[in-house]
Predict the 3D structure of the following.
Amino acid sequence: MRTPPDVLGGDFAAPTHCGIAPAASTRLPMDLPRTILSGFALATSWTWCIGMFAPILIGSLMGWPGIVLFAVPNVVGCALFGYLRSAERSRGETRDHAAMFSFFSAATVAFQVFFAGWLWGPMLADAYRLTLGEGTALAAGGIFAAAVLLAALPRGFVWLAAAGAFPLSLATFALLPWNSLHAVAAHGEWPAEGMYLVLPTIVFGFALSPNLDLTFHRARQEVPAGARPTNFAVFGVAFASMLALTVAYGAMQGGLNNPAVRAHMALQLTLTSALHLSELRVARIAPSARLVLGVGAGLVGLATALEIPSRETYLRYLGLYGLLFPAYALLALRAGGRPSPWQWVVLLASCGAVTPLLDQGFNDRPTAWTPLAFVIPVVAILLATRRRAATVAHAAAA
């Protein structure tokens, strides 16, 4: 009997012949320890500067109802990822869409690097009598350098480290100043209807963006054939606890400056970046492209932290996960394979056309035009792929 692949790192996966996995009857079910550790590692891979800060920002804009509307599609969309696709389908997706999946990982690393520089640059500058630029470079560069060093290790060790990071972050609950906790307001800066104007974008983004995450695909592919992907159920519970942690320290006086919170955030930023850099190392793209994306991610994150460190820049990074990435995920699902050049044109043109609407909606306040940032790309992609979808349906019927 073959040894089942190691769910904590592809370096230890059982070999296959000609890319064909062993039959289901020769695979052992996913045991409980591996299920839990894989779920914990997935929680770390998705607990990054969105989950650790966006609930605070959304709460300030929309109040606690906005946090709920952010959290539900985020947790459910990610957890369902593992249940809505087989390991074989996931392998096909990572092959057919390797370039975009790799860009997703690079953008995610850049986002973490930017966030570290923006959040901690001023603090380090004050603490060590540095210029603001030096403090920003130290914070951003430190996270990226640590991530690169970790990513150079075998993937199995990186995933084990990510799994171990979850209980350490969970321990942050015990170190919070609970006596300074205050209630999250029911309303924020935006009028009440603003929340519903951006709701389609939020649901669209968090329901589909996980489809491009190479760490999610890795975890799905390494579930033994015939076993249920219960590691994604573990992930859902674990990640929900991380969002609860964010809401808790966001509702405390000086919560973001608490040493335990800073340690939690540094740990998660580093390991998220390391996991994505580790996946980039083996992505199905040219070695030169891997190098360009990996190094470029660090440089872009540092440059944006130095030149445009602001809430607006944070929201513009976030916009990638509310527009471009979910739009591509929809295109990939509809196309059933690699998008054609014409479909790429439709994707980029429709996303480019509505980017000003999305930017205004989140960086100023939503208007009646804001939902078009969701509607126009979706309609354009559905029209661009209708022939392919009809062909697939006809073939299935035949």
Notes: Residues 1-29 have pLDDT under 50 and may be disordered.
